[in-house]
Amino acid sequence: MAVLSVDLAYRRWADLGIVVLNRAAECDLSAHPIAGRSAHRSGITCEMIPWTHAEIDPAARPGNVDPEILAGRLNHLCNVRGIRVLMLDGPQAWKSRDNGHEHARVSERQLNTACKTGLPGVVKPGTYRGFAEFSLDVYDALCRRGWRRLDTLDRPHAGPDRVLVESYPCAAWRSLGLKPLPSKRRARVSDLAEAFSALNSIMPITVDRPPNHDQLQAIVGGLPGLALAESDNDGARIIGAPPRREEGHWREGYIVLPVSPRRASNLRWMN
To answer: Of 74, 77, 21, 16, which is closest to residue 50 (Cα–Cα)?
Structure first.
């Protein structure tokens, strides 16, 4: 069952990292030069979806990404591919007034995220507000198209529903026991190759082209979506509090992280 994962960006379409992840019964990772591995079973295939402003609307002037247009494009892609789990690297809601934290959602406090969404309109640091509001608009636009925010720990898999799941790549790398990718501004090509190699060493992945920074973040952030789609409770960590409506706004929401296959195997052995 395929999963769509998006590393969100709102200034340029080209900055979006969009990948489709799927479980392969068998994949030959030696087919791509950056993989450099022999065939593996239970591997993951990854297709990069490059979108540019010209491809979205050649007649329009370049500018910020429109959340309504983005939601429509993502929804259409999922409909065509039969995808029911959509991972988004961006906040889905504001903090609840009574969650016990002054400036953050429960999930953000537990993961000590670099940026935090407080009460409606309050974001730390303030420079993050534009992106946070854009991200919330994307979630809402997708919900108007029949999606829902992941809202239960008892039944985390998608089932017949189409589920929006918040990812956080920085914590996803750490959850797998790997060093987080440097910021896009500082990352070199060698950093991308090293990070992909480390990821591939614990979770065999075949790609259709070398991933750029945004796509690599989308890959690692989207991995727990496969576990959710497969009802594999050992393959994902669900952090935070369920989303809910409060005073006319969405509040809280889960952030979902991948679990290393080695750790998941140990958990099953212990059980």
So the answer is: 16
pLDDT of residue 232: 85
Q: Which residues contact 157 (CB under 8 A, 6 or more apart)?
A: 228, 229, 230, 231
Rounded distance between C-alpha atoms, residue 177 and residue 167, angstroms: 17
Q: Which residues contact 244 (CB under 8 A, 6 or more apart)?
A: 96, 250, 251, 252
For the full predicted model, state whether its pTM sits above 0.90: no
Give residue 109's Cα distance to chain centre. 18
Cβ atoms of 226 and 21 within 8 Å: the answer is: yes
- How far apart CA 96 and CA 242 sit, in angstroms, is 11
| Structure tokens that stand for 267 in this block | 């958990």
C-alpha to C-alpha distances, 229 to 12, 42, 100, 156, nearest whole angstrom: 30, 15, 32, 9
pLDDT(266) > 60 = no
For residue 8, give every residue at least 6 positions away whose Cβ sits within 8 Å of its Cβ, in sequence order, or none.
16, 88, 89, 90, 131, 134, 135, 138
CA angle at residue 210 from 67 to 11, to 5 degrees?
Answer: 25
Distance CA 162, CA 83 (A): 8
The H or E element containing residue 47 is strand 39-48
1/108 Cα distance (integer angstroms): 29
- Torsion angle of alpha carbons 180, 181, 184, 185, nearest 10°? 80
Model confidence over 160-205: pLDDT tens digits?
A: 689 999 999 999 999 999 999 998 989 999 999 999 999 999 989 9
Mean pLDDT on 134-153: 94
259 half-sphere exposure, CB direction, 13 A CA radius? 18
Q: Residues 6 or more apart from 155 whose CB is under 8 A from it?
A: none
Question: Cα–Cα distance between 71 and 142 in angstroms, integer?
Answer: 5
